[in-house]
Each structure stands twice: as C-alpha cells, then as structure tokens.
C-alpha cells in the first residue's frame, strides 16, 4: 500500500529543502570601486614634478625624485593589475550565479508543468466520480445492495474511489508546494545573478579606469624623468646622455639591492620550511611515544590484574597507563604541534608541506598546456581565446583535472606554499605589492628550467620568461602547489 504524506509533512520537507538550497547561493558583495585613494603612485608623481620645476632642488633631491617616479609608476601598474584580478573574481561569480539561475528557472518550469499535469489528473478523477454518481456512504452501500456480496463489492468500490480521489488530491497539494518552492528559489537565484552581474560591471569599469590611470601615470613619470635628466645635466655641467648613464648605474645598484633582499627572503623561506618540518616530525615522534606508553600501561595493568587480582590489577593498570599515556601524549603532542605549526604557517605564509592534492604528472600536464596558450592576447577575465594572468593558470590546471580559484589572490590562498627554490613544473609563481602575500596582483605558472608562462598585462600577449626577471622586489618567495 502506498503511503501518502500529509500536506503538513510535505510542506515541512519542502521548506527545509528551500532553506538548504538557498544557503548555497552566493550573493557577491560589491567589489571595491576604483577611486583616487586606490592609486598610490599619483601623489609621488606630482611631488616629483614639483621638485623638478623648483629651481632650488638639489642633485640629491632630483635623484630621489627619479627613484620616486620609478616606484610610483610601478605602484600604479600594480593597482591596475589588482583591479583586473578583482574583475576576474567578480566575473567568475557572475558566470556561476547565472548558471545557477538558469538551472533554477528550468527546475521551476518543470515543476510548474508537473503541477499542471497533476491538476489535470485530479480533474479527470473528479469528473469520473461525478459520472459514476459520486461515492456512497456506508449506509447507502448496504441499503442499496441487492445482496450481501453486492454490498461488499459496493463498499469496496466506494473505498477505492475515495482513496483514489484523496491520493490524487494529495499529489496536487504536493505538486503545488513543490512548484511554489522552486519558483521562490528561482527568484532568489535570479536576484543573486542580477546582483553579481552588476558587481561584475562595476569591477570592469574600475579595471578600465585603473588601466587608464596607470597608463597616464607611466607617461607622466617618463616625461618628468626626462625633465629631471635635463635639470641634472645642467646642475652638473654635463650632458643628458652622461646623466642617463649615471642614472642607469644607480638603477643597477637598486636592482642589485632588490635581488639581495629577495634572495634573503628565499633563504628565510627555506629555513622556515625546514624548521616547520622538524617541528612536525618531533610532534609525530612525541605522539608515537605517547601512544606506545599508553599501550604499555594498559597491557601491564591488565596482566597484573589477571595474575594478582582482577579488580586491583585492572583498575590500577588501565587507569594509570591509559589516562597518563593517552592524555599526556595526545594532548601535548597533537595540540602543541598543530597549533604552533598551523598558526605560525598561516600568519607568515609558510609552507604546508605535504598538504597538496595534485601530482607531479598533473603539474607537468598543466605546464605543457600553458605553453599552448602562449601568444594569446591578454583579456580581462578571459577564459579563451584570450586570457588574463589567473585565466592562464586556471585553464592550465583545468586541463590536468584540477580547478583552482579564478583569481590570483584566490589561487595563492588555496594552494600549498612551497619554498620557491623547491618548485616543480605546474607550481604557481606570485607577485604581491611589497612582497605582501595579502596583496597578490599577478600569477604565472612554472614550466621548468627557471621559466614561467604568463599573461602579464593589458595590451600584451602571453609570454615565457625567467621567473625572477620581473619585479623581483614583489616576487613572493613561496610557490603555490595545487
């Protein structure tokens, strides 16, 4: 016999489903809109212009202004890259929520069709009951019968018709509730998709604004630098060409200092990785020793209890061995090791050795696929045929059966961090403003032999270069392994 759920039970079940499904909807928060305060290089460029125009500015001050111009130009370009990365994330969210909305709309449409069918069935059953003269009461079935067997048959037919009508009615109620639930869910997902689409449009406008600002900043910085060279040549009674050569020498010195700082950061990363590995091994050894101690205490206590007296031996051995060994070993080893290692690692961006889920062959596959995308045009939020920086790495790892985050910052946050000196093909190489892992603006993929494949910036095509040949001052000393 088929059990028909009550309307109240169906409603409770449907509402629970709606709550669970609605909780999975991601309504993106509005992305940061580009504004004057998001372009850290502009004030420095203005100050450098003023210094060059000031007749009292000294050679040392002009040298400092040129350094400031270099830094300001880089800062504006980094902001443009970060804005592009934010747009990539907003676009990915918009694409995902639109797919969810489309699927919800299809489900709601199917549910509405099922409801129409259920209503038609109910109408058919009701019509048949009317044509048959309706259902009898129990008294009518007995009084109107020609005999005992006829009375039994009439009663059974009456019960069957009533049960059929009730079952069809319950199905209509269930179909109505289901259709209403999916209709509400479809509206929620449509609203979420609209919000995400608007956020993506805002993020795109911000990325375009940031790119225009960066291009203007670079042009202004270059013009100001040229004017500074002329002033310096005049102050030192030399030629512009000689002054340019002097400035190049100073730039080379700054590059050497940045390289030395980067190499020191790499050594620190390696030392941190070694220390974390040693701490993890020590914690594991302590836990193993505690486990062995616990096993010994339990065995000794039980044996003593069996030989000399069940109650005394078992109680003393089990309590002393198990409690002391297990509690002391597990709590001290696990808590101390996990808290110290995880907290320290997360705060400093240290590696989570052995935590990655991808294989070396997957990494090689990702690297190989990335090479096939070289020469493609840079496109904000692009997933083909043009790509942005995280689009290249997303597509590359997708070809290897792994789907990372769609933004450079998200890819850094979701990967295991390996000292960059230990990276293998497929690992991700990141740049963050001031080598800050919380301000990632670019990602490339390591392909081996000291090279990365990347889509760097608007207006350029994807290229292969030495992994440490660009913006070494912002190069994160950890690679990300999916």
Automatic annotation (TrEMBL):
The keyword Coiled coil applies. Residues 52-86 form a coiled coil. Residues 297-347 have a biased composition (Gly residues). Pfam families: NLPC_P60 (PF00877). GO terms for molecular function: cysteine-type peptidase activity. Residues 348-359 have a biased composition (Low complexity). Residues 360-482 form the NlpC/P60 domain. Residues 1-36 form the signal peptide. GO terms for biological process: proteolysis. InterPro entries: NLP_P60_dom, Papain-like_cys_pep_sf, Peptidase_C40. Keywords: Coiled coil, Hydrolase, Protease, Signal, Thiol protease. Gene3D superfamilies: endopeptidase domain like (from Nostoc punctiforme). Residues 290-359 are annotated as: Disordered. Belongs to the peptidase C40 family. PANTHER family: MUREIN DD-ENDOPEPTIDASE MEPH-RELATED. This is Cell wall-associated NlpC family hydrolase. It comes from Demequina lutea. The lineage of its organism: Bacteria, Bacillati, Actinomycetota, Actinomycetes, Micrococcales.
